[in-house]
Amino acid sequence: MSKTLPFSLNVQALAADMVYAVRKSASTRWPAVRAEAEVEMRKLAQTMLDIHKLHSGGDITRTRAKQLLTAQRNSTCAVLKGIKGIGLLTAEATTNAALRAVATNVNAAVAFRLLPDGEEVKASFKAGKDL
Prior knowledge:
mainly alpha
């Protein structure tokens, strides 16, 4: 029997909101990032839902939830950075825009500040350190 969550996170709706934010942020680079950005935003949205379920079920702490989100965010930035003509700053800017677009809804659903709302978040690639 699955536990009912007080707020619902819809992966398709979250992904669509994030894709829209990425499209606006990427501007003229949208055609170059579109295909991979759409896939990455779905992954990021699914990760948020998974984190929500794990945290609300008591399986992970807030700290671990933030670590899991950071790992997926860094993965998203790495994928976007790997697209020809897209640099780290563009990858970070588009990913930050996506997270800001859904921060209010996600934070309300998880009942704590999982996502930053308005501030920039730097990718943290730390070799040899588990997130």
